[in-house]
Design a protein that fits this description.
Radius of gyration: 20 Å
Strand order of the largest sheet: 5-2-1-6
Order of helices and strands: HHHEHEHEEEHHHEHHHHHH
Structural class: alpha+beta
Distance between the termini: 26 Å
Number of domains: 1
Number of helices: 14
Number of strands: 6
Amino acid sequence: MKDFKLPKKTTEEIFRFYLQSSTHFRFPYFDPENPYRKNGLFTHLEDTLMEAGEKLHECYGKNFISINLRGSWLRGIPLEDDDIDLLFIVRGLPQEVRKHILEYCRTILRKKHQIYKVCEGKIEGGVKVEPINFFDLEKTAFILKSFMYGLDHFLRDEARKDRNGFQDSFFGSKMKEKLLDFLKSGILIPYVGWIYGKWKKKEVFGELARLLPVPTKPVGIYSEHEISATKEILRKVFIARNLIYPSQKIQHFVDLSITDARIFMNEALELYRSLEPLESIHSRAVLNYIYTAEIELKLFGKRLIKDRVERFAGNYNNLVHYILNLPF
């Protein structure tokens, strides 16, 4: 077995590669010039996940659809302690089966190489945050409807201060909880790297098109504007997460003055104002935007981040078309 190694921390060289690569590739993981693709690490990971996918398909047939990659590995610059974030697309598999799928992949990956660690969640603010590991095609309709109930009132009153206190009189859930549930639905699919099951992309997007219409059109009591605004909010969340290096550790590269921060903050807020319902993700995106923009100035003498976001932040419809036509 080849002795693959990952660095313990981000270096300027790593970050420079990430910035350059992400101006041409939505995910630097797929960049043929990525050093981990050149040394065979990413191919080895893909082969392992393909092996796992074939085995799981033998067990669960058409109800097991795909294995998709997310997180720092998909961004192409994993560090020594970074977990591998996986998203499994399934159809109607019970919880005990999902648990077996996750444990099987966790076991096979660790056997193949010690640096492969499947994400098990993390502690944020003293609370265990569980990763989103599964998307069940059969649950999409329920998730969508539970989110959309009352959405028109939410969109008509964007200035409401107490968004998280807005109670849905039917489901009894908070708007923020609805948004997080909705992230587990089909809106997540464009923001993953397809490994096992690439050939099923059209099947998955075809299924989603019935519920998140592509192109957008009115559905039931919800207008085209309401559905489009919903897509836009959630789409930008993942653009922020995928196109900006997602770690405050990068701040050790720069020394921002208050003046610098104000300039970048205004631009960042202009791009990410649609994220306001998800305040914690929004603030992290803005902060990372500020540091990334300053690092680009330091390393390249120019800022690439705005062009990068605008290039890859096309609407949901165009993004689906882009993914369906990718060779990988």
